[in-house]
Each structure stands twice: as C-alpha cells, then as structure tokens.
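Lab notebook, bench 4. Still working through the backlog of constructs that have no structural model yet. Next entry is a single chain of 80 residues. Request: give me the structure tokens for it.
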Amino acid sequence: MNEYVLAGGDAAAIARIRTRFEPDARKTDETDGLSLDMGDWRFNLRASNTENVLRLNVESKGEMLETIVAEMGNLVSGPG
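Model written out:
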C-alpha cells in the first residue's frame, strides 16, 4: 500500500473522485472516508483531521499506480 498526500483537498474534490471512479468500482465502503475496490487496484481517500489535505492510500497489482495518483491529483486540483 502506498500513501500520498493531496494538498488542498475538500469535499468537492472527493465528490469529483467519486464521480470519476465509483461507476467502475466493484465495492464501495465509506467507513473511513471513501474506499473503492476497482478489481486490480483499490484506494482509500479521506480528509485529514489536522491539515487541509486529503490522504490517499492506493494498492495496485499492476504498474498503473503513477497514472492513478496523477489522475486523482488532477481531480483534486479542480474540475476535469
């Protein structure tokens, strides 16, 4: 599992990520933020309780990790 910090995240950013990825998810869990199981990869995204950032944990069986993180970073930055 790899952890990333996405600066400036808010509820709108989480909503954009949900809109982009949830339709293809095999399973959704909202126990601690937003967790989606995408089959070959999965992630948990949650707002920090102490900083204005989103914490992203991603696990991938393939080599697409950098692409996933880059796309999420773009979605956090603004509509895309």
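Notes after review: The chain has a mean pLDDT of 89. The first strand starts at residue 2 and ends at 7. Flag for follow-up if needed.
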